Amino acid sequence: MMPNFRLEDGRELHFRDDDCSDPWRKSEAVLLLHGNAESGAVWFGWMPHLTRQFRVIRPDMRGFGQSTPMPEDFPWNLDVIVDDFVDLMRSLGVEKFHLVGAKLGGTVARHFAARHPDMVLTLTLAGTPRPDRAEAAANVPGWVAEFEQPGGVEAWAGRTMRKRLGSAFPEEGIRWWTELMGRTPASTQLGFMQNIPMSDISADMPNITCPTLVITTEGSALGSVEATRKWQQTIARSRLLVLPGDSYHVAASDSDRCAMETLAFITEGHKAL
């Protein structure tokens, strides 16, 4: 099912709602939050693993995918994004669920879990930045100049894709992801990238009380294993899983492994934390 949810400001949030579990039992829900310049469609590799046991909800973040594009001057902040997802889940009658975030979706997910601990059963973070990224502000002028050019979002995606998906990712996959991310409206990307990547969620870490799985790779450009472990350990009930490779979008480059590890974690593994 792929309906739209009308937000309070009148814009629409597109989402996908799939459940292939046994119809005679009520399945728990999983909310999947994609990263920058993506949509809920990017979780395709996870779906066969999750939908047999769970109701899986995949929204397109406001401004992205098939959701209403956002103007460049929209006042982006993490609370607005989290509130969108809270309202969506409550409209679907889902008060508690497992939460998964990839890339900057993991930043949103951590803020979500800290603000609404009563809603989040478990948290999985796949290839997500550290909590504080003040240095990202230095990249803003270059991003803006690139996005303002015709085809700028796709050009940026293509220029950065190999580092995102890793040296082993197939060339045809690089092209597919570049085209998908390149469809992001420039106005959305300009506003989002001037605000969200620099968000500091350090204060949220001690307030995440649910069992948490953090997934990274040995050579992630988002930070060394040691640096990732340092912030992961500020979440009380958490553990770190390090996969081989050098991608930082591990949810995409290693989708099957990440999905299987997440499934094992939210069904049984979290009980040890």
List the helices and strands and how they pair.
Layout: E1 4-6, E2 12-19, E3 29-33, H1 47-50, E4 55-59, H2 78-91, E5 97-102, H3 104-115, E6 120-126, H4 140-147, H5 152-165, H6 171-182, H7 186-193, E7 212-217, H8 225-232, E8 238-243, H9 250-253, H10 255-267
Parallel strand pairs: 3-4, 3-5, 5-6, 6-7, 7-8
Antiparallel strand pairs: 1-2, 2-4
Helix pairs in contact: 2-3, 4-5, 4-7, 5-6
Question: Can you describe this structure in just a few lines?
Answer:
With 273 residues, the protein is of the alpha/beta class.
Q: Spell out the helices and strands N to C.
A: EEEHEHEHEHHHHEHEHH
| Number of beta strands | 8
Tell me the β content: 15-25%
Which architecture does the CATH hierarchy give at level 2?
3-Layer(aba) Sandwich
Helix/strand class:
alpha/beta
Mean model confidence by pLDDT: 96
